[in-house]
Design a protein that fits this description.
Shape: elongated
Largest sheet: 3 strands, antiparallel
Radius of gyration: 46 Å
Order of helices and strands: HEHHEEHEHEEHH
Strand content: 5-15%
Number of helices: 7
């Protein structure tokens, strides 16, 4: 009952230690032990000679009073539903057919390396000195049209290394004229070197034991 008596007094408000000892009716020795224990576990808070409630709910519970009701937590916004995870297909041999029809004479198609190049400009029909004009559509500028045609000419240049163009915007900004020009000497030398390397590319000789390793197959394909 000693702790209950102390808590009942402290519930009234902060109180001096000596006054609390006198009102509790406990001996000084028992009072000091009980007060030290209540301060140690956080039930009481002591500031110099004043003692107050450190944990009000615990003080009320020890004193026999009803604990202070907890305030309801504010309602949180509902979390968005998680996105459905992508279903992973696990293929097994049992899911595949066991009988197949063997066909003969079907040619193997060439491998596709990205999208096929489709040229919408008359680059292939142009000779050196030829030109054509591109009207600038509404909502665009001459610089945008010139940049687009130069980009396509760069792709065409990879197929035809000696192909070169230059562009000029019209004075009124409503058109772009494209000329095919003479390639530079550096471009001619590079094109000739590429053609010579392709013509004299080394061919891998068959191995003496009749077996071809993986490294030899890779070198042969690269050549």
């Amino acid at each position: 009952m000693s702790k209950a008596a102390l808590c009942q007094i402290v519930l009234e408000g902060p109180i001096d230690v000596d006054v609390l000892a006198d009102r509790s009716g406990l001996s000084r020795q028992i009072f000091n032990v009980e007060l030290s224990q209540l301060c140690r576990d956080g039930t009481f808070a002591r500031h110099g000679d004043l003692v107050s409630s450190g944990n009000l709910n615990r003080v009320r519970m020890i004193a026999g009073s009803e604990p202070e009701p907890k305030k309801p937590k504010p309602a949180l916004a509902p979390e968005p539903a998680p996105e459905p995870t992508k279903k992973v297909s696990i293929l097994t041999r049992e899911a595949l057919p066991t009988k197949f029809e063997i066909a003969k004479g079907i040619p193997i198609p060439e491998p596709r390396l990205g999208r096929p190049y489709v040229c919408t400009w008359p680059f292939r029909e142009m000779q050196i000195g030829d030109s054509f004009e591109i009207p600038v559509p509404d909502g665009s500028t001459a610089n945008e049209v010139a940049a687009l045609v130069r980009k396509d000419a760069g792709r065409h240049d990879r197929l035809f290394p000696t192909f070169r163009i230059t562009t000029r915007n019209s004075e009124d900004g409503k058109g772009v004229r494209v000329w095919r020009i003479e390639p530079t000497e550096k471009t001619k030398r590079r094109s000739a070197k590429a053609a010579n390397d392709q013509q004299h590319s080394p061919v891998a000789s068959p191995p003496p034991n009749g077996k071809e390793g993986a490294g030899a197959r890779v070198r042969r394909r690269a050549a």
